[in-house]
Amino acid sequence: MSFTPRFPHFLHGGDYNPDQWLDRPDILDRDVELMHKAHVNCVSVGIFSWARLEPEDGVYVFAWLDEVIDRLWKGGIHVILATPSGARPAWMAQNYPEVLRVNDRLQRMHFGERHNHCLTSPVYRRKVHAINTALAQRYANHPAVILWHLSNEYSGDCRCPLCQEKWRGWLKDKYGTLENLNKCWWTSFWSQRYTDWSQVEAPGPMGEVSNTSMWVDWRRFSTWQCKTFIENERDAVKAVNPELLCTANLMERFWDYDYFDLAEAIDVVSWDSYPEWHSGDDVQRAAEFAMNHDLMRSFKDQPFLLMESTPSQVNWKPINKLKRPGMHLLSSLQALAYGSQSVMYFQWRKGRGGAEMFHGAVVDHDGSENHRVFRDVAQVGQALETLESLYAQPRKKAEVCIIYDTQNRWAIDYAQTGHSKNMRYYDTVNMHYRSLWQQGISVDLKDMRTCTDLSGYKLVVAPMLFMFRGGIEEKLRAYVEKGGTLLMTYFSGWVDEFDLAYLGGTPHGLMDVMGIRGTELDAIYPHDENALVMNDGRRFAIRELCEIPENRGAETLGVFENDFYAGMPCLSRNRYGEGTAYYLSAKLEQAGLDAIYGDIAQALSLTRALPDNLPKGVIATERGGAVFLQNFSGQEQRFSLSEPYTDLLTDEAMQNITMPANGVMVLKK
Ligand code: GAL
Question: Which of 79, 114, 349, 544 is the most exposed, having the fewest neighbouring CB atoms within 10 Å of its CB?
Answer without folding.
Answer: 114
